[in-house]
Amino acid sequence: MMNAPVRPGALSAGALPIALAEPAIRFEKVGKTYAARSGQQAVSALAGIDLSVPTGSILGVIGRSGAGKSTLIRLVNGLERATDGRILIHGEDVTKLTESGWRSQRRRIGMIFQHFNLLSSRTVFDNVALPLEIAGTPRAEIAAKVERLLALVGLADKSERYPAELSGGQKQRVGIARALATDPKVLLCDEATSALDPETTRSILALLRQVNRELGITILLITHEIPVIKEICDRVAVIEGGRIVEEGETFAVFTAPQHPTTARFVETVTGVEVPEHLASRLRTEARPGDSLVLRITFIGENATAPVISRLSAIVGIDVNILAGRIDAIAGQPFGSLLVSVPSRAPESEAVLGALKSLGLKAEVIGHVS
Ligand SMILES: Nc1ncnc2c1ncn2[C@@H]1O[C@H](COP(=O)(O)OP(=O)(O)OP(=O)(O)O)[C@@H](O)[C@H]1O
């Protein structure tokens, strides 16, 4: 039986759920092999990459050095060409574009870099104006647009300065303004905060979030820093050895990583270390009078609920807090707490049962005297 035909105009693009909307970027079985150079072997940098960047989202690709991140992002703006598969940008296959096709495509893609790539001989204003000059925009229009962009990135008072007179964070703000000059639909970020200190990193990430939310620009970023993913990415893809080993919504991936590499990345921001003085005394077998050490994970609304007092009330015993943290992942609360309770059978079983009834994940770490 044939499917019923879809009536043209029955669904407007605005009414489509995100999952059905055309992704801003789609990789289909993409591979990249760098050709052998004299005396060297060919390098397979990427293989079998299937990845969709939903329109309007921020997707972060994380991986260690050499995993293939730079190659992946360079394929999206045509600085490298895929050797296998296809890349679609807003539905258009860019894999077969000619150089002149790429020139007009690149106007729809902005890019920012780890080392900013500003022209040192041009003022802030002239750096931001450059893509507009290349596109042949009239001078009066350029002036108005550059002023708007500098106001957006918080540098309205720096337009006549030169890059050497700016801090790293200010240079990246100029990079962002320049990348937005041609009204791109997609912004690519290549380790954009790796050269910045943590506080400046946070302010640049907040600006990127604002650009995404207020201008509706899709962002694909690559990084080796998990806090960047935690802070602003809606989705995360983990890349290793040229392959995507895990991909999903940031909160889901962080709270239940499936691949060992993902688990190693996320434990640095979600886990609570067992304090040294405790770790050296931990045993797997309980002895009479011992305490049981548990790691409790709080997700979503549980992270801010008074669960420890509720737990004590249910089981009628004291719960000692040993270490903990409450944080936000992609804007959602997440907490992890190390506690100790009596190891004796009825009490410890009651605690584990009560934690389950409260909807909390508990992991037994060991026993201490
Ligand atoms: N132009 C090139 N010619 C040959 N091999 C290359 C080239 N560029 C990258 N490679 C190789 O491809 C693999 C992936 O490199 P890529 O730079 O994409 O990784 P990365 O994750 O961005 O690493 P890093 O964070 O260190 O930049 C590596 O083995 C690298 O040596």
Automatic annotation (TrEMBL):
InterPro entries: AAA+_ATPase, ABC_transporter-like_ATP-bd, ABC_transporter-like_CS, ACT-like_dom_sf, MetN_ABC, MetN_ABC_transporter-like, NIL_domain, P-loop_NTPase. The keyword Amino-acid biosynthesis does not apply. The keyword Nucleotide-binding applies. One of its GO terms (biological process) is amino acid transport. Residues 25-266 form the ABC transporter domain. Keywords: Amino-acid transport, ATP-binding, Cell membrane, Membrane, Nucleotide-binding, Translocase, Transport. GO terms for cellular component: plasma membrane. It comes from the Bacteria. SUPFAM superfamilies: ACT-like, P-loop containing nucleoside triphosphate hydrolases. One of its GO terms (molecular function) is ATP binding. Belongs to the ABC transporter superfamily. Part of the ABC transporter FtsEX involved in cellular division. Important for assembly or stability of the septal ring. This is Cell division ATP-binding protein FtsE. The lineage of its organism: Bacteria, Pseudomonadati, Pseudomonadota, Alphaproteobacteria, Hyphomicrobiales.
